C-alpha cells in the first residue's frame, strides 16, 4: 500500500496548510450494507466538481489494518469525470466472514485532484471520505439491526473519580448511536458527544459521564442508526449504580 501512504502524507500536508476542505468525490450513502447472499454489493460515488478526479479506494478493519480483508473491492483506482457518477463493487468472501454475527469494515475513498494549471503555486487539497461497510451473513436483516438497538441494556460503572454508562448488546448486530444523551439530578438532558464507538455484537461499550455526576440515578436516552443512515426511534431508561 505504498501508493496509499504517499497520498496520506500529501493529504496531511494539504489539510494543515488549507485548514479545511470539502470533498469533491463522495459516496452517495453514509453506510453500506453488504449481504453474503448477494453476488456483489454496489457502492455509488459521485464527483460534485466540474473537474475530473482519480479516485483510489481501499478497505480496512476497525483497527485500521488493511491486510486479510475478506472483501474484494473493484476497481481500486478509477477516473471519475466532472459531475458524473461512478460505481465500486464489493464481493464478500463468504467463507472468510463470521456466520453468527455482523462484521464491519471501513471503506476509504481518496480523491486525487487534477494538477493546477492556472497558478504556479496554487495549493491543491486532496480529501478522503470514509464510510462503514456492514457485512451480514444469511438470515440477517434490517429488522434484526433495529431490534438490537432497542434491546440494549445499561448500567453505571465507576473507577476512581470517573463514571461511565455501559451498554450491553446481546444481539448479533453492531449498534451505532443516532442519539445518546443523559440526565441526572442537577444536570439537564445533554447529548454525549463521544458516542462514535459502536456496541459490538455479544459485547459492550461504555461512555464517559460528565464530571458533575457524583452518583445516583441516570436517565439515558438513545436511538440506533438504521440501515439508511438515519436515527431510529428513541428509547429512555433510568438506571441506578
UniProtKB/TrEMBL annotation:
SUPFAM superfamilies: PapD-like, Periplasmic chaperone C-domain. It is found in: Periplasm. This is Chaperone protein FocC. InterPro entries: Ig-like_fold (IPR013783), PapD-like_sf (IPR008962), Periplasmic_pilus_chap (IPR050643), Pili_assmbl_chap_C_dom_sf (IPR036316), Pili_assmbl_chaperone_bac (IPR001829), Pili_assmbl_chaperone_C (IPR016148), Pili_assmbl_chaperone_CS (IPR018046), Pili_assmbl_chaperone_N (IPR016147). Residues 168-231 form the Pili assembly chaperone C-terminal domain. Keywords: Chaperone, Periplasm, Signal. One of its GO terms (cellular component) is outer membrane-bounded periplasmic space. Belongs to the periplasmic pilus chaperone family. It comes from the Bacteria. Residues 1-23 form the signal peptide. Its main location: periplasm. One of its GO terms (biological process) is cell wall organization. It comes from Phytobacter massiliensis. Residues 25-140 form the Pili assembly chaperone N-terminal domain.
